[in-house]
Write a structure and sequence with these properties.
The complex is a heterodimer of chains A (about 110) and B (about 110). Chain A is mostly beta strands. Helix content of chain A is about 0%, strand content about 55%. In chain A, strands 2, 4, 5, 9, 10 and 11 form a six-stranded mixed sheet that branches. Chain A has a five-stranded antiparallel sheet with strand order 1-3-8-7-6, with no helix packed on it. In chain A, strand 4 and strand 5 (about 45-50) form a beta hairpin. With about 110 residues, chain B is an all-beta fold. The radius of gyration of chain B is 13 Å and the shape is globular. The chains are: A mainly beta (about 110), B mainly beta (about 110). At the A-B interface, strand 4, strand 5, strand 9 and strand 10 of A face strand 4, strand 5 and strand 9 of B.
Chain lengths: ~110, ~110
């Protein structure tokens, strides 16, 4: 199984906020990432956070990092139907910075 | 600009037949290259990882192999496909270095073994 853990499903009403949680494995990971996958497509980088930061905001996206608990979250404000997708968190632990993903959280936005 | 090409987009193969999926990257040199598999449903499993020509790390024991004959070419192969090899295969590249750069993904290959 994956070393990076995520909740599998999230259903949210359009206009509400979505919060996706992730627990990663390796405190040596200097960067932590959120990727988005739309149906039948590859992954695209949404945002990332450097490990010495607690929070990063980018328009509707807010990333929170709790390094002590190795917990990462992604908050999407004012969730839209176009936000329906699978969201993956990822880490690049030492020594080889191999990019490792969680299982992905399927977000479904309902009207 | 950098681009990544992965082909074919879809493939239907009989059990026991060979497989060759190709991925090429343009516009960068010495990238880290990855093959992932996403089984029906979801989950992104790292299959192979390469930091240079001829250098392949296998993450899980399986029916597949990978090769990197050129700096920007990564090939996923099998001699005899199994039904369980069905899935969505994604190639990705990332600048070599300290893991602090974005990874770029191909559009994926949908493999169905029948």
């Amino acid at each position: 199984g994956e070393d990076v853990e995520q909740s599998l499903f999230l259903s949210v009403r359009e206009g509400d906020s979505s919060v996706i949680n992730c627990t990663y494995t390796d405190s040596s990971s200097t960067y932590l990432y959120w990727y988005k996958q739309e149906p039948g497509a590859g992954l695209q980088l949404l945002t990332y956070i450097f490990s010495n930061m607690d929070m990063k905001q980018d328009q509707r996206l807010t990333v929170l990092l709790n390094k002590k608990d190795k917990h990462l979250s992604l908050r999407i404000a004012d969730t839209q139907t176009g936000d329906s997708a699978i969201y993956f968190c990822a880490e690049t632990p030492l020594p080889d910075y191999k990019l490792s993903f969680g299982a992905g959280t399927t977000v479904t936005v309902r009207a | 600009s950098q681009t990544i090409h992965q082909w074919p987009a879809t493939l239907v193969q009989p059990v026991g037949s060979p497989l060759s999926l190709e991925c090429t990257v343009e516009g960068t040199s010495n990238p880290n290259l990855y093959w992932y598999r996403q089984a029906a449903g979801r989950g992104l499993q790292l299959l192979f990882y390469s930091v240079g020509i001829g250098q392949i790390s296998s993450e899980v024991p399986q029916n597949l192999s990978a090769s990197r004959p050129q700096d920007r070419q990564f090939i996923l192969s099998s001699k005899k496909l199994l039904l369980s090899d069905s899935g969505f295969y994604l190639c990705a590249w990332q600048s070599g270095g300290q893991g602090n750069t974005e990874a770029f993904f191909g559009q994926g290959t949908r493999l169905t073994v029948v």
